[in-house]
């Protein structure tokens, strides 16, 4: 932008001192920026000898171009620059243009080379992981396994950091979703690899244990390969990636073509339009042929499919006439035909959406108790092979239902990233189901084996986690359908400019530019992760009407809106919107602290002082955020600083919330267990307590690929086990 300013400056006969000083400042700023940029490039070159020469040449070119621009803009000391022999931007504008071109090309070259280095680092890291995996597959003793797995854990941490940074840097949302899916597989499979390998070592002659372990290794290799495909933007054997076609995307494209007839009657053929509709209707057969689609939905979809064909026939008839004779009546008839065709397609879209989401909601509700998994664990420990076989059949049926649900949801997901998430979920159920079965068979054959029991637990946790993820995915799909793209849920206090706060009416609403949004993106991502953690904690409470839960959910929703603001999305459009949302968030934090104080009055446990301490911290943080949000500032720089501070303080409150929610949950669990940590009181009834364990604590979520847990497992593996 600085260079553009220089190139586009107006040549006026009279040049004030202010203009001359401004031009010189811009030139110096460019030169300094180039200097800093080149310093980083040279440091990268010194660490990577294979590209050192190319990088050094590009850095030298960039530095030379920056210095040339600084010399040509050195005009502030000249009273009459045009009469001086010194060459300046005024006497040689083409020189500035040449220097600018050289600078931009050399900077681009440095960036491309740096990117090549990052890609090479990821590939090298992947190769290390693969080599260590091969060693892990061949080990025959616990001692050797512990040593190699420790190395494997460190290599996975490195790979996680590299791919995580790359995922954040990706601009293509589709690639970002694929990368997230692959990394999720690696995260879950790393723990599975540990327990499956331990089980195989303990029971080397067990066929089901061997099948279980091989499945994990195979899935990890596929995920590692997909990461490299995304990073290098390539496919094996030069294949082209075939994007799955969904009903939503088909209807969207079809409607665009139909509506395009208003502008141009000749840009496509009737055969093309008919083929597009045929493809859409073929995909609706996934719904009408499904055993899980209700009779009512099936009938409606068939009726709308038939109607769509009729509407297209009528449209084609009027369209062909209009091509031959453009009368007013015909054009009006064409408009009516276009509207009726589009309306029919909208109704079809609505019907398939309703069919898919209602099925998903019913299935997720039905399977939320995980009865089959619990039965497999119990019968496995009992060594009851007949009962295990019975429940594995039920799990296979459940898997088929969930796979079908994912396929139908993909058709109505609405965006490519959500489509990819549906495909990933389908693959997860498809693979994890048989793995649970093999783990359960192993336990049934060796009912006293603690390792086999632990292994089954890990695979069951993965299944439960995927079911939980499906609930969030279903919510996102519904949000997209209802026009709330990217919004978790609408919070009633979302600000509207000039409506809520009289103190803000004098402030001019400001939108952040691209550079400022990039600066707060990291904070925003942290905020996003924290909202997921808080949601995970609140969903564990059986009593969703509990005041602590409701206030926690509300604060999470507001924090998510603030995260979307950092991406330039969502309902918070200006900085004024953000500041008002931060005020409301802070108020909710104070109210939550009051609820925690009321709860603490009923606590007899040793944790009461900790609960009170955390509640006081929450009050203090909320007040600080409120003061920051209400502070009056002027000027773009000051406003951005305030935005940064508001998001930072919101993040701190959310971090504290992640600690408070499980603490309260633990106190309630103790009460149900009969430890008497609570005084009996109506608002905190015993039957409201959920006994589920906390699988998503902040400490675990904060560790990349769950490495902290892995290290604990490795540490606890003693050689007594091998004896």
Give the helices and strands, then pairings.
Elements: H1 2-7, H2 17-47, H3 52-72, H4 93-138, H5 142-169, H6 173-202, H7 207-232, H8 247-260, H9 270-288, H10 295-324, H11 328-366, H12 371-382, H13 385-411, H14 416-445, H15 450-481, H16 514-538, H17 547-566, H18 575-600, H19 608-630, H20 636-672, H21 698-702, H22 707-716
Helix pairs in contact: 2-3, 2-4, 3-4, 4-5, 4-7, 5-6, 5-22, 6-7, 6-14, 6-15, 7-14, 8-9, 8-11, 9-10, 10-11, 11-13, 11-15, 12-13, 12-14, 12-15, 13-14, 14-15, 16-17, 16-20, 17-18, 17-20, 18-19, 18-20, 19-20
Enumerate the spans where pLDDT stays under 50 for 5 or more consecutive residues: 79-84, 486-509, 675-723
| Integer average pLDDT | 81
* Helix proportion range: over 70%
Looking at CATH, which topology of the domain at 514-672 would you report? Answer: Four Helix Bundle (Hemerythrin (Met), subunit A)
Rounded to an integer in angstroms, the radius of gyration calculated over CA atoms is 31 Å
CATH architecture of the domain at 514-672: Up-down Bundle
The CATH homologous superfamily name of the domain at 514-672 equals Alpha-catenin/vinculin-like
